Every structure is written in structure tokens, then in C-alpha cells.
Amino acid sequence: MSLKPINDILGILEQQAKWREDPFQLLIQSWAEIVGTVAAKHSRPLSMQRDVLRVATSSAAWAQNLTFSRQALLVKLNAKLSMSLVDMRFSTAGWQKSKEVSQPQPSFLPSEHPSYLGDIHNYSTVSKTTEQNANQAFESWSRIRQARSQGLPLCSQCQSPTPPGELQRWGVCALCSVKQSSNNI
Ligand SMILES: [Zn+2]
Questions:
Q1: Which CATH number fits domain 9-95: 3.30.300.180, 3.90.180.10, 3.40.30.10, 3.40.50.11270?
Q2: Residue pLDDT tens, the chain, 185 long
Q3: Where along the chain do its domains lie?
Q4: If you measure from the C-alpha of residue 168 to the centroid of ligand 1, how many angstroms do you get, rounded to a whole number?
Q5: Cα-to-centroid distance, 153 and ligand 1 (Å)
């Protein structure tokens, strides 16, 4: 007996275990395969109640579109996932909500940056300089730093006012930390 049939059997058992765990999750995973990648972008299974599958769609047109092909989709779904669904209901209700849930949260906030001073206005000023050359951008950044210097702690190296976040991160200001690391090379 070769290993392959055993692996096949294990695969089937795994699949069945998954199915018992949560048939709805399996349905969501196979959704694009069943409706096609384009339709999958505009539809999302919401819930399964009794033998009826509720699906949210991005627009009324997509709800109509998929309603027309629901018989074919039911056959595919029942065959692929060994289910016994009898109907599918498509509606735009719940689309927005389920979309929000699936969107990943931004992992980086400006306020987490060591140079952040708590003033969004300066960020737009800095970003306007990106079209100029790097030196000009650096100069205007320095000017902004100087303009905001009141009340800031001083860098122990160059005695210039420094955002507390930079001192926390590097012990010195951002400029001195760059100088230090380039001296070390
Ligand atoms: Zn410094």
C-alpha cells in the first residue's frame, strides 16, 4: 500500500472535521470558487438559517444578477460542500457592516513615530516639500523644528530642542542619532 491513498483519506477526514467544526467558514472559503472571482468581490455570505443562505451584495444590481443564477449556485454549493441548501437570498443589507469587519486596521499611527509632536498641521507642511529636492525639504523641516522649539527638552549632544519621543527612542535628537550611527560605520 502506497502512502498516497492514506494521504487522500487523511485529507478527506480533515475536510470532514472542518465541515463539522464550522460549515459556514468552509462556505466562505470556497465562495470565490463557487460564484467566480468577480462576483465574489461584490457578494459575501452573511448567514445560514435553516436551509437558506443569506448573502450580502455591494449593489441591488448584483443582488438581482446573482438571484438569477441562484439555482446553478445552489447545485454547485450543495455538491462542493455536501450541503442541502434549498434557497439563497441576496440583498444589499449587511454589505457595509461585513465589509468594515473584514478591513484590517492601520498598523502604524503618526503618533507612534518618535518625531511626532502632536500637530497634524506640520505633517501637511512637510509633505508639500516632497516635490522639491531633499536639501530644501530638510531645510524646511529644520525650520519647522526651530519654530516649534519652545518648551521642548534639549538634546544632550547638540543642545537643540528635541521632541521627547526622539530622546526616549535614541537618547539624543534624530539628527545626532543619525550622525552617531554614520560615525560608527
Ligand atoms: Zn542633537
A1: 3.30.300.180
A2: 566 777 787 777 776 665 566 778 888 889 999 999 999 999 999 998 888 999 999 999 999 999 999 999 999 999 988 888 999 999 998 888 655 554 455 555 666 677 777 654 544 444 444 455 777 777 777 766 666 666 788 888 898 888 889 999 999 999 899 888 877 65
A3: 9-95, 114-180
A4: 13
A5: 11
CB 47 within 8 A of CB 13: no
- Which residue matches cell numbers 530642542? 161
27 CB neighbour count, 10 Å cutoff? 19
Q: Which residues surround ligand 1, an ion (CB under 5 A)?
A: 155, 157-158, 172-173, 176
Long-range contacts of 100-106 (CB under 8 A, 24+ apart): 102/44
Alpha carbon of 178 to ligand 1 centroid (Å): 9
For residue 165, give the C-alpha cell: 519621543
CB neighbours of 52 closer than 8 A, spacing ≥ 6? 85, 86, 87, 88, 89
C-alpha cell at 20: 463539522
